Amino acid sequence: MKILMITPLYPTDRNPGLGIFVKRIESIYRELGYEVDLIPYGSGASPWEKMANVRRFLKTIRAKVKAGDYDLVNVQYPFLAPLAFGRLKLTKPLVTTLHGTDAKPDSLVKKVLLPWTGRLLRRSDLVLVNSRFYKDFVMDRYRLTDQAVRLCPAGGYDPAVFFPPSERARGEVRWLGFAGRITAKKGWRLALEAYENLLALARDPLGLKLAGQGEDMADLRQAVQRIQASYPQARIQVLGNLDDSSLADFYRSLDLFLFPTLYEESLGLVAIESLASGCPLVASDKGAVGDYVQE
After folding, report:
1. Most CB atoms closer than 10 Å: which of 2, 3, 167, 172?
2. Nearest-angstrom CA–CA distance, 280 and 98
3. pLDDT(45) > 70
4. What order do you get walking across the sheet with 174-179 strand by strand?
5. What are residue 180's phi and psi, to 5 degrees?
6. Is residue 165 part of a domain?
7. Residue 257 lies in a domain
């Protein structure tokens, strides 16, 4: 089987963590013996470069869909791509895989494109989602039937990478951890606030490790400096983006993982990865988190 796989998110040298879940799905397809013809959107540094890449992305989609040299079309994270389908005639099955903010937008551009997203979903032979919470939302928001929307893990995690330690030795410092995009909706401020409050109560040395990058990095570093100035005993590590192997080691080094998201996550992959790595967690009761985190 040959799959025409379309995605606006895919890892690049500049951003190796971008759309890593899509790359995992591609790897699963290839491991199953499927041939994959990938159409990724290449982000650009300047507005002009981004616009040129959008035109190239849409033009390539139209050309390859018309050519029909595939057995199935799989649109991953349908942002931008729906614009290419318009009046295109589909002769092969269309499967659309949703991941979160593609159908539950978090930006003005995504909200503007929602009508096109809805049309693509209603044209799809199958829509795949990654949690019961998200399935209910998608069915209600886009008026899709239960038969049209199926639960399917979005690439999941690699158990050969994310696994519990053979033994957990308690160190001198108790470590809390946060991983995710450093943006307001991911709750990094709550993580720092919780850590600051615990510092005043903790009898043992308490540290905090922060993994990820995002638009709030300058604010995060400023907040970290303030805490360190107020609490000489504070031990905070800002680690930036981590590859899967380093991220798994990060989880295994923690005593507790913090997942204080302010957004209704469609899944919350970092929370699942932390549990798979043997690290207990405290999480916000929002979105799909309640599907797999219990008291």
Report:
1. 3
2. 28
3. no
4. 235-240, 206-211, 174-179, 256-259, 281-283
5. 155, 180
6. no
7. yes
Rounded CA-CA distance 129/102 in Å is 11
- pLDDT for residue 44: 66
Tell me, yes or no, whether 240 and 278 share the same domain: yes
Q: How many domains does the chain have?
A: 2
Query: pLDDT of 63-108, one tens digit each?
Result: 999 999 999 999 999 999 999 998 899 999 999 999 989 999 888 9
Q: Which of 6-20, 55-69, 115-129, 262-276 is least confident?
A: 6-20
The pTM assigned to this predicted structure is 0.84
Polymer length of the chain: 295
Identify whether residues 140 and 227 lie together within a single domain.
no
Range of the domain at 78: 2-151
Q: Say yes or no to pLDDT of 190 above 80.
A: yes
- Do residues 189 and 141 share a domain? no
Tell me: do 179 and 146 sit in the same domain: no
User: Residue 35: which CATH number?
Assistant: 3.40.50.2000
| Residue 91 burial by Cβ neighbours in a 10 Å radius (0-12, 13-18, 19+) | exposed
For residue range 76-85, what is the model confidence (pLDDT) as tens digits? 999 999 999 9
State whether 226 and 260 are in the same domain.
yes
Amino acid at 28: I
Q: Residue 167, exposed/middle/buried by CB under 10 A (0-12, 13-18, 19+)?
A: exposed
